[in-house]
């Protein structure tokens, strides 16, 4: 169970790093490297979703009350965060405004981190 948590956190950290790398490659107009790295990032999106689903089904499916609700909110926020990351990258590639994407990104990352590490039982704060 603890290994699932570490795997999920590791995939998120690598995903955020890859997101920043793809963003910088797009801005430097290195399209081929950006495309390859973006595909690797999309693979990490799948790993994040699978590891998050495993965490949810192993730990929170039978939880009741506010713990269950917070796990659902964290899950939806995590998927929303992935969507915001993808939206930012696509809009930067098309040279469109990314304000809405960045706003969603900031709100969702704060929500995901505060629920994941602070409120839910597998976080670092009991």
Primary descriptors:
UPF0344 protein E3U55_07035; mainly alpha; single chain; 126 residues
Describe this structure in words.
It comes from Filobacillus milosensis. It is found in: Cell membrane. The protein has 126 residues and is mostly helical. It has one domain (2-119). 83% of the residues lie in helices and 0% in strands. The longest helix has 29 residues, at 31-59. The two termini are 16 Å apart.
Furnish the topology, listing elements before pairings.
Blueprint: H1 2-27, H2 31-59, H3 65-93, H4 99-119
Helix pairs in contact: 1-2, 1-3, 2-3, 3-4
Beta content comes to under 5%
Order of helices and strands: HHHH
Quaternary class: single chain
Low-confidence stretches: none
Largest sheet: none
Radius of gyration: 16 Å
Counting structural domains, the number is 1
Pfam families: DUF1516
Keywords: Cell membrane, Membrane, Transmembrane, Transmembrane helix
InterPro entries: UPF0344
GO cellular component, one term: plasma membrane
What is the structure about, briefly put?
The chain has four helices and no strands. By secondary structure, it is mainly alpha-helical. It has one domain.
